[in-house]
């Protein structure tokens, strides 16, 4: 007894667990450090052995720098010091120093010293066979046990042997130390789930990626995403992008609607508390024999509350339905703003990006991204926050009106439920991401195949395309199975925790009813409240998954938002002041990819009203000059000026308003011919459209169609021939009536007769306008004021047609080859006509054959 008396306080024994409505301090402060030290030593030793035997030292460049990791170390060190400090303070205070206090301080300090050591080992070494990321199970279990142990103190809320009363200085210091431990262990556990000081990928994967850095320079359009990356990574940036859509700026009505909906949300929380209370009152009044008037009033109030609440989760109640109805306008506002902003952003991206995009991928990303933003806002505001609020209210209610055991049961169940839901859902993330990727892949193959329908038919590749699409769907379904299987596992885990908590609470409540401490109505209240609480909690996992899925779905859309505009207007850019139309290229350098220059030191001047022709071999850089002048790209060296103004210093819209382009490959909108021509100037009248068509020599052809100008041209204008499409593009440019005209092999798709007609039309349009022509047929640019011969990115020759022929250089060589080709074609046509006429003539007979 002497030992027990010296180990525990006077009138206390370690064998007595429950004393005066609380856990015995002697029992608690012996059990907790013993378990923690056992876990730390046993699992920590195994941990160190494994890391020493199967691990390797990490290279410093792969170890992330993290303030949170430093915080983990500092917090662990502070906790260790406070355990020892608590013992020293208790000894110095002059009062009784029980043995369990010394054991608690020493054992706990030793356990936390082990934890710090494990933290440092994980920081420096990595398991080569490890396919996961984050802290080891040993550390996470240690932090979870330490945090749970501090929560056990709540059970002794009413016990006089604990510090909750804060009656004297000693209790106040003990409470302060507990508060420090509670906050410290809680932060360590929740920060530990993120593992800030450790690489977010398996170490071997990091090494392999480092070696493949050069190969990975050409990534896909939407970028690669690590399948093991947490969806909460970059959370701050994602939320920053969402914030503008959360509050409907510029609409007071919508802002009032948001505030009113949030008010209804608060009303729902209050109703959820009062429904089980009134149900309890009905049961108690029935058992106590209350008057009919009192009972009827209580029943009516209960039914009214139930009508307002609806199903247990508030899914079909009057308040919930009213909130959902009012929220529709806010949701539509968000949806519209997101889609419009993204659409505008895509149009602001450079031609380089659009040439490399996958249309199917982009469309799927936009669809999923915009819908996921609505889902995210709805789940966070109307599901996650209310559920957390219900949990907090319920814990406070049970502790206050029942006792701490019920609060503890609810708290432990909620903590376990939420923790496991988050851990398992984070683990499932990679399957969801992979499924999205395969879905994008399948849709991209389908879109690409349908867009290239003609090519598929040319090569009898229908079966090949179908098999490719089927393979993509099979891969998608394999990823989908993993996603659904992991979801089923998560649901079973959640059901197990909810069932265990309901069983424990119901048994305890029933026991108190049999002991006479509770009434039957209290049992009904507990059952009603806990089931009402578990209903939204059961959906909490779904909400969390939906939020996480929304983040995953938004990742591709965020990557689109993050695409930088290659060609931007300067901050103080002014409008182009057009005077005469003088175009100057001065020492221009340009390359599409590093190391391969397309243009080198190109300099030339186009005087106002002149026509300059660019000729040369394919790939020499002729079309690039047109694109640079239209500012699809920025030059990498030199300068382009119009009327002495650097085009990189003026607004793109003002520059392009003065320039008209007839491209080599014309693509039309899937609309009527009239609207396709009117695209040159949206405000043009029908008469102006027809005049432009007449000038482009296509009016008669259009009128020959059954529907005339209302004829639908089909997707990308496929219902029209190449020549017809080209003439529509020319009519569109004529309608725009620009001061500077760029013709990029504008007549390449036309027959000789039509080409001559178009040339005459273009000559009228280009009269007194600065014109730059890219030509393949040299016969079309004989009358140009200046001809530039582009070769390997440089201007090799320049001059008028006759001058260049006299030089006998590249231009003369090209001219001779084209003339020979034309002569060859014309002679072969003549021979064919001769052969045809010979077949048609009857055989001739000689007169000598008839003489005798």
UniProtKB/TrEMBL annotation:
<keyword id="KW-0813">Transport</keyword>
<dbReference type="Pfam" id="PF00005">
    <property type="entry name" value="ABC_tran"/>
</dbReference>
<dbReference type="GO" id="GO:0031901">
    <property type="term" value="C:early endosome membrane"/>
</dbReference>
<feature type="compositionally biased region" description="Basic and acidic residues">
    <location>
        <begin position="830"/>
        <end position="839"/>
    </location>
</feature>
<feature type="transmembrane region" description="Helical">
    <location>
        <begin position="252"/>
        <end position="279"/>
    </location>
</feature>
<dbReference type="GO" id="GO:0016887">
    <property type="term" value="F:ATP hydrolysis activity"/>
</dbReference>
<feature type="domain" description="ABC transmembrane type-1">
    <location>
        <begin position="259"/>
        <end position="549"/>
    </location>
</feature>
<feature type="region of interest" description="Disordered">
    <location>
        <begin position="816"/>
        <end position="852"/>
    </location>
</feature>
<dbReference type="InterPro" id="IPR003439">
    <property type="entry name" value="ABC_transporter-like_ATP-bd"/>
</dbReference>
<dbReference type="GO" id="GO:0005576">
    <property type="term" value="C:extracellular region"/>
</dbReference>
<keyword id="KW-0812">Transmembrane</keyword>
<feature type="transmembrane region" description="Helical">
    <location>
        <begin position="67"/>
        <end position="89"/>
    </location>
</feature>
<feature type="compositionally biased region" description="Low complexity">
    <location>
        <begin position="818"/>
        <end position="829"/>
    </location>
</feature>
<protein>
    <recommendedName>
        <fullName>ATP-binding cassette sub-family B member 6</fullName>
        <ecNumber>7.6.2.5</ecNumber>
    </recommendedName>
</protein>
<feature type="transmembrane region" description="Helical">
    <location>
        <begin position="376"/>
        <end position="399"/>
    </location>
</feature>
<comment type="similarity">
    <text>Belongs to the ABC transporter superfamily. ABCB family. Heavy Metal importer (TC 3.A.1.210) subfamily.</text>
</comment>
<keyword id="KW-0067">ATP-binding</keyword>
<comment type="subunit">
    <text>Homodimer.</text>
</comment>
<keyword id="KW-1278">Translocase</keyword>
<dbReference type="InterPro" id="IPR017871">
    <property type="entry name" value="ABC_transporter-like_CS"/>
</dbReference>
<keyword id="KW-0256">Endoplasmic reticulum</keyword>
<keyword id="KW-0333">Golgi apparatus</keyword>
<feature type="transmembrane region" description="Helical">
    <location>
        <begin position="101"/>
        <end position="119"/>
    </location>
</feature>
<keyword id="KW-0458">Lysosome</keyword>
<feature type="transmembrane region" description="Helical">
    <location>
        <begin position="178"/>
        <end position="195"/>
    </location>
</feature>
<keyword id="KW-1000">Mitochondrion outer membrane</keyword>
<dbReference type="GO" id="GO:0005741">
    <property type="term" value="C:mitochondrial outer membrane"/>
</dbReference>
<dbReference type="GO" id="GO:0033162">
    <property type="term" value="C:melanosome membrane"/>
</dbReference>
<dbReference type="GO" id="GO:0015439">
    <property type="term" value="F:ABC-type heme transporter activity"/>
</dbReference>
<feature type="transmembrane region" description="Helical">
    <location>
        <begin position="27"/>
        <end position="46"/>
    </location>
</feature>
<feature type="transmembrane region" description="Helical">
    <location>
        <begin position="520"/>
        <end position="540"/>
    </location>
</feature>
<dbReference type="GO" id="GO:0005886">
    <property type="term" value="C:plasma membrane"/>
</dbReference>
<dbReference type="GO" id="GO:0020037">
    <property type="term" value="F:heme binding"/>
</dbReference>
<dbReference type="Pfam" id="PF16185">
    <property type="entry name" value="MTABC_N"/>
</dbReference>
<feature type="compositionally biased region" description="Polar residues">
    <location>
        <begin position="842"/>
        <end position="852"/>
    </location>
</feature>
<dbReference type="GO" id="GO:0000139">
    <property type="term" value="C:Golgi membrane"/>
</dbReference>
<keyword id="KW-0496">Mitochondrion</keyword>
<dbReference type="InterPro" id="IPR011527">
    <property type="entry name" value="ABC1_TM_dom"/>
</dbReference>
<dbReference type="Pfam" id="PF00664">
    <property type="entry name" value="ABC_membrane"/>
</dbReference>
<dbReference type="GO" id="GO:0005524">
    <property type="term" value="F:ATP binding"/>
</dbReference>
<dbReference type="InterPro" id="IPR032410">
    <property type="entry name" value="ABCB6_N"/>
</dbReference>
<feature type="transmembrane region" description="Helical">
    <location>
        <begin position="496"/>
        <end position="514"/>
    </location>
</feature>
């Amino acid at each position: 007894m002497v030992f027990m008396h010296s180990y525990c306080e006077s009138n206390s024994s370690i064998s007595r667990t429950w004393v005066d409505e609380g856990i015995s301090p002697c029992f608690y402060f012996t059990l907790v450090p013993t378990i923690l030290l056992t876990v730390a030593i046993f699992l920590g030793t195994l941990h160190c052995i494994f890391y020493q035997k199967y691990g390797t030292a990490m290279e410093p460049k792969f170890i992330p720098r993290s303030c949170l990791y430093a915080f983990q170390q500092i917090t662990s060190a502070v906790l260790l010091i406070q355990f020892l400090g608590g013992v020293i303070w208790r000894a110095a205070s002059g009062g009784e120093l029980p043995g369990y206090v010394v054991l608690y301080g020493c054992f706990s300090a030793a356990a936390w010293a082990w934890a710090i050591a494990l933290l440092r080992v994980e920081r420096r070494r990595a398991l080569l066979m490890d396919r996961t990321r984050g802290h080891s199970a040993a550390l996470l279990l240690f932090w979870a046990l330490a945090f749970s142990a501090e929560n056990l103190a709540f059970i002794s809320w009413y016990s006089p042997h604990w510090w909750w009363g804060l009656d004297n200085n000693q209790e106040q210091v003990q409470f302060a130390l507990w508060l420090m431990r509670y906050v410290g262990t809680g932060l360590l556990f929740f920060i530990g789930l993120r593992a800030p000081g450790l690489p977010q990928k398996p170490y071997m994967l990091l090494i392999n990626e480092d070696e493949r850095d050069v190969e990975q320079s050409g990534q896909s359009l939407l970028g690669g995403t690590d399948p093991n990356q947490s969806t909460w990574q970059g959370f701050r940036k994602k939320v920053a992008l969402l914030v503008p859509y959360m509050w409907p700026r510029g609409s007071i009505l919508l802002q009032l609607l948001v505030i009113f909906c949030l008010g209804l949300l608060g009303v729902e929380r209050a109703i959820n508390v009062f429904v089980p209370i009134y149900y309890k009152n009905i049961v108690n009044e029935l058992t106590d024999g209350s008057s009919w008037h009192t009972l009827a009033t209580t029943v009516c109030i209960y039914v009214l509350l139930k009508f307002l609440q609806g199903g247990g989760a508030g899914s079909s109640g009057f308040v919930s339905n009213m909130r959902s109805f009012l929220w529709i306008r806010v949701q539509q506002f968000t949806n519209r703003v997101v889609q419009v902003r993204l659409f505008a952003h895509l149009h602001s991206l450079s031609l380089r990006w659009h040439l490399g995009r996958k249309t199917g991928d982009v469309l799927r990303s936009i669809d999923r991204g915009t819908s996921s933003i609505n889902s995210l806002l709805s789940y966070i505001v109307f599901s996650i926050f209310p559920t957390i609020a219900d949990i907090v209210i319920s814990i406070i209610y049970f502790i206050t009106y029942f006792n701490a055991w019920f609060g503890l049961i609810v708290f432990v169940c909620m903590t376990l439920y939420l923790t496991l839901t988050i851990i398992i859902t984070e683990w499932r993330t990679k399957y969801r991401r992979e499924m999205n990727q395969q879905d994008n892949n399948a849709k991209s193959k389908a879109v690409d195949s349908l867009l290239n329908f003609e090519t598929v038919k040319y090569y009898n590749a229908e079966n090949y395309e179908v098999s490719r699409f089927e393979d993509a769907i099979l891969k998608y379904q394999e990823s989908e199975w993993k996603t659904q299987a992991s979801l089923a596992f998560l649901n079973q885990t959640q059901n197990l925790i909810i069932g265990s908590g309901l069983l424990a609470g119901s048994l305890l409540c029933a026991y108190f009813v049999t002991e006479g401490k509770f009434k039957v109505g209290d049992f009904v209240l507990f059952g009603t409240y806990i089931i009402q609480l578990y209903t939204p909690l059961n959906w909490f996992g779904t909400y969390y998954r939906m939020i996480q899925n929304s983040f995953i779905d938004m990742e591709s859309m965020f990557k689109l938002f993050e695409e930088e505009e290659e060609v931007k207007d300067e901050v103080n850019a002014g409008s182009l002041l057009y005077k005469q139309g003088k175009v100057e290229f001065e020492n221009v350098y340009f390359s599409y990819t590093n190391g391969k220059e397309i243009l080198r030191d190109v300099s030339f001047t186009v005087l106002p009203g002149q026509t300059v022709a660019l000729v040369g071999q394919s790939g020499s850089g002729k079309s690039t000059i047109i694109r640079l002048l239209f500012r699809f790209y920025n030059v990498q060296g030199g300068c382009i000026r119009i009327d002495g103004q650097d085009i990189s210093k003026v607004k793109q819209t003002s520059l392009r308003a003065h320039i008209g382009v007839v491209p080599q490959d014309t693509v039309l909108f899937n609309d009527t011919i009239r609207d396709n021509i009117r695209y040159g100037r949206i405000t043009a009248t029908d008469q102006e459209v027809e005049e432009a068509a007449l000038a482009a020599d296509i009016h008669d052809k259009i009128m020959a169609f059954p529907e005339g100008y209302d004829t639908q041209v089909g997707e990308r204008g496929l219902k029209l021939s190449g020549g017809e499409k080209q003439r529509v593009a020319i009519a569109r440019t004529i309608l725009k009536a620009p001061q500077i005209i760029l013709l990029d092999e504008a007549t390449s798709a036309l027959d000789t007769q039509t080409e001559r007609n178009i040339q005459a039309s273009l000559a009228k349009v280009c009269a007194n306008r600065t014109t730059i022509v890219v030509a393949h047929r040299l016969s079309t640019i004989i009358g140009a004021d200046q001809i530039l011969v582009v070769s390997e990115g440089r201007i090799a020759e320049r001059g008028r047609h006759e001058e260049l022929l006299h030089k006998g250089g590249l231009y003369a060589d090209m001219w001779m080859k084209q003339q020979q080709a034309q002569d060859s074609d014309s002679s072969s046509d003549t021979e064919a006509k001769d052969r045809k006429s010979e077949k048609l003539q009857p055989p001739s007979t000689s007169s000598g054959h008839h003489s005798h």
